Amino acid sequence: MKILIVEDDADLREITTRSLEKERYVVSQAPDYRTALCKIEDYDYDCILLDIMLPDGSGLDLLEELKAMGKRTNVIILSAKDSLEDKVQGLDLGADDYLPKPFHLAELHARIKSLLRRNQREGEQSLRFGNIEVFPDRFRVMVEGKEVDLNRKEYDILYYFMCRPGRLVNKNTLAESVWGDHIDQVDNFDFIYTQIKNLRKRLKEAGATPELKSVYGFGYKFVVE
């Protein structure tokens, strides 16, 4: 699951990033309006933590941009501006929640999980495809009721495809979603091929019916045949 933090306070940005990474989220940062706009244009996020008061613009304008792009992204406004007008305007523009500063990280984590559950197969506690069941809150994977041991990236890849069964996924999109924005700096995708190969092996050994199929020249598709 990938989160974008749009926040101009460097200390708060870093503290929040470290806290979320401990919860196994892929986290990207934007210190200002321009950087945030570039990121939401180029990438998709499961959740955006959005400050209203940015040095070069307003977080409310970013909400309008998201709406204009047609991107359905969970947004939690994090702002010291706790006026009723800002709160109502943010929610009207598509924000899902509003958390005033200062806030407790434990509450932020709970609100993020609540939002993601709400959009995850109508609020179910697990994802199912074929005979695979994934429990996101506990990072557990079961095949026919038996737990499958995966490393973090194998799990992240599987979770990504469990949310998109049957969809054709470009390898660049997969890499950026699982490894983050800095994927632009790598020379090749050998590390993805390795993780995909290992995940396929583990699922096959566990007797999973869904398969990660390669689509030549494009990417992958998670299907049951």
Describe, in short, the structure shown.
With about 220 residues, the protein is an alpha/beta fold.
Polypeptide structure, described:
By secondary structure, the protein is an alpha/beta fold. The chain has two domains: 2-118, Response regulator (Rossmann fold, 3-Layer(aba) Sandwich), CATH 3.40.50; 127-224, Arc Repressor Mutant, subunit A, CATH 1.10.10. It contains eight helices and 14 strands. It has a five-stranded parallel β-sheet with strand order 2-1-3-6-7, sandwiched between helices. The protein is elongated, with a radius of gyration of 18 Å.
The coarse overall form would be elongated
Order of helices and strands: EHEHEEEHEHEHEEEEHEHHEE
- The radius of gyration over CA amounts to 18 Å
The third-level CATH topology of the largest domain is Rossmann fold
Number of helices: 8
Alpha carbon gap, first and last residue? 27 Å
CATH class of the largest domain equals Alpha Beta
Helix content: 40-55%
Residue-averaged pLDDT: 88
Unreliable stretches (pLDDT < 50, length at least 5) are none
Tally of DSSP β-strands: 14
Q: Which CATH-level-2 architecture of the largest domain?
A: 3-Layer(aba) Sandwich
GO molecular function, one term: transcription cis-regulatory region binding
Domain Response regulatory: 2-116
GO biological process, one term: regulation of DNA-templated transcription
InterPro entries: CheY-like_superfamily, OmpR/PhoB-type_DNA-bd, Sig_transdc_resp-reg_receiver, WalR-like, WH-like_DNA-bd_sf
